[in-house]
Amino acid sequence: MSVYQATVSAPVNIACIKYWGKRDTKLILPTNSSLSVTLDQDHLRSTTTSRADPSFDKDRLWLNGKEEPIEPVGRLSTCISEMKRLRAAVEAQNPSAPKLSTFPVHIASRNNFPTAAGLASSASGFAALVASLASLYDLPATPSQLSLIARQGSGSACRSLFGGYVAWEMGTLPDGSDSLAVEIAPREHWPDIHALICVVSDDKKGTSSTSGMQRTVETSALLQHRIAQVVPARMDAIKDAILRRDFPAFARITMQDSNQFHAVALDTDPPIFYLNDVSRAIIALITEYNRAAGAIKAAYTYDAGPNAVIYAPKENIKEIAELLLRYFPQAEPFADPFSLGVDNHGRLP
Ligand code: PMV
Question: Which parts of the sequence belong to the Mvd1 C-terminal domain (predicted)?
Answer without folding.
Answer: 195-349
